[in-house]
Amino acid sequence: MANPKRKISRSKRDMRRANWFSSMKPSQLITCDNCGEKKLPHRACPSCGYYQGKNIFIPKNA
Amino acid sequence: MRHRKKGNHLSRTSSHKTALMRNLAAQVIEHKEIKTTHAKAKELRGYVERLITYGKKGTVHHRRLAFKFLQDKQAVNSLFEEVAPSFENRNGGYTRIIKLGNRKGDNAPISLFQLVGFEKISDKAAAKAEKDKKKVAKKEKAAKETETKAQESAAEEPATQAEPEAPAEEKEAEKEDEEKKED
């Protein structure tokens, strides 16, 4: 069986793991054209129910 | 190899997937728009577009082809009599998929599947906006009337003028109650 020749040092291990967190990015938000709330792009606005100038659904807490 | 394997089986057996698509297509034709997961909506689009093309051709043969898939007489009827004629001047692109966000519980992306030209909500929203406007106007009116009434009573004018206003106000109050019930 093929095995690692050397033990991975704590330094190497931690350097590998450190990149995972820094690679996480917050989701990109845009402002809704209708109500000005922040929303995810390419989706109907959850706060006003509008998408591309059209009302798609009526939000519950309107 | 994945060569020429199109489409998504949605983690179902072939028959299960066909049944799912039948149900969803019949529901779309009945209700004009449905909420479903984005993957199902994308898969459904091809089936519904094909059915509408059958409807536009409108022959008995195409009616049978549509029934073969839908297995639902009412859906076939409304497809041929109601849905397809409205797409007479549209060459494809009969459906629209709008992403709504992720579902609570399993975080599945949910979409709205619409038949183009059959959007219901915009009408509803317009009606609701008008209702709200009316409500606001009524409230303002009522407030004004109470003000004027107060002024009149202060001026000690004859009661004959104040009387016809009172029943009207009561009626408006009743109407508002009705509207609240409707909501």
TrEMBL record, chain A:
SUPFAM superfamilies: Zn-binding ribosomal proteins. One of its GO terms (biological process) is translation. Signal peptide: none annotated. GO terms for molecular function: structural constituent of ribosome. Coiled coil: none annotated. Pfam families: Ribosomal_L32p. One of its GO terms (cellular component) is large ribosomal subunit. It comes from the Bacteria. InterPro entries: Ribosomal_bL32, Ribosomal_bL32_bact, Ribosomal_zn-bd. Keywords: Ribonucleoprotein, Ribosomal protein. Belongs to the bacterial ribosomal protein bL32 family. HAMAP family: Ribosomal_bL32 (MF_00340). This is Large ribosomal subunit protein bL32. It comes from Caldithrix abyssi.
TrEMBL record, chain B:
It comes from the Bacteria. One of its GO terms (biological process) is translation. Residues 151-165 have a biased composition (Low complexity). Residues 129-183 are annotated as: Disordered. One of its GO terms (molecular function) is structural constituent of ribosome. Residues 129-150 have a biased composition (Basic and acidic residues). HAMAP family: Ribosomal_bL17. Part of the 50S ribosomal subunit. Contacts protein L32. NCBIfam families: L17. This is Large ribosomal subunit protein bL17. It comes from Caldithrix abyssi. The gene is rplQ.
